[in-house]
């Protein structure tokens, strides 16, 4: 067993060490990488404009547009505008802005998913207003915010998953910590710009209704009934359906100085590290356990979990963040592109898709900014090059259906431009492009200005 462990460690070093010990990346090399990413953004946007203009998103293989709901909410332009602004893509920013103000309206008899509409639209519109200054962005955000508030009218104050924008009707009480506790940043900004404290109070109550239902171990589960406050699924993890709940507790402290949120983050993070963190020869990962007993349920880890190295970096725990990013990089290189999920004990894929997700690049970005260690530049370059090479289509960039075969899927989610390409660019861009002492990124990578 000891020989196998040593051999595994040797193999992993052969895989990852070239990324750590490679040559210095010159300023010219970093500028070239930025230019490559800008070209990729332009390619994706041109495909959207040509074949999906006015729709929510591009289907990059069939060359069609698709909407999330009964009619378009102009999702891709809203999500992408601040990326274009930061990357100084003036033509694309103006085109996106024109589409938004021409066609976007929330005065519709339409049921929407509260979480996705909040992080993509509310965050995108507020960020666009703070960067660009056009009052129309903020007016749209205020209108949307009012239409989302009825979702929180449950017996517990935790929101239903869906709300009708016109009549306020809600449905689906079985929700999760991410879809319940990821409104502090966007709703806090609404309070800042409207003077109405209801927004932040509502978001904070929802988050802390989850926090006060943590187990004696300090952990939360995956599914909860917002009507009764009863846990339906008690598996605890840091990935899908929980991730941004933790993220927003800490970021609400950074953005608004909310000490309650900081304390809740510290309590939660301590429990996560105690019960979920697993150090291996491949790097560190987070496992899954029962929230009440701490007994492991599945040794699964994946693309969404990769964000935690970034939030640990922001909170100052660099040693653990570095270990996790080693695991993140192993996951990517082992499978030639990260799968949605794999079993880190057996090295077997449990969900083979890659949806163009940003979290691994996000953690590279925060670690490079904090350490100036060029291994994170090389990790990011390796990942970005893989994405641009394997996912490019004539019309844009497509998700990977199966990383084993690199078969593509007819999907380019708006977060590819909002998050993945933004973090990829900012890693290599001059630091004065965006000052982390002045902004906080939402979970959709929309930068919000820190309140004084």
How would you describe the overall organization of this protein?
- The chain has a 3-stranded antiparallel β-sheet with strand order 3-4-5. The protein has a 3-stranded antiparallel β-sheet with strand order 6-7-8.
- It starts with a helix and ends with a strand.
- The chain has helices at 2-21, 27-52, 75-86, 90-103, 114-132, 135-148, 177-180, 184-194, 198-211, 243-256, 259-275, 308-314, 318-334, 359-371, 375-390, 415-428, and strands spanning 57-59, 64-66, 111-113, 162-164, 170-171, 174-175, 223-225, 231-233, 235-236, 277-280, 283-286, 288-290, 296-298, 300-302, 341-343, 348-351, 400-402, 407-408, 439-441, 447-449.
- The chain is 51% helix and 13% strand.
- The radius of gyration is 21 Å and the shape is globular.
- The model has no long low-confidence stretch (mean pLDDT 95).
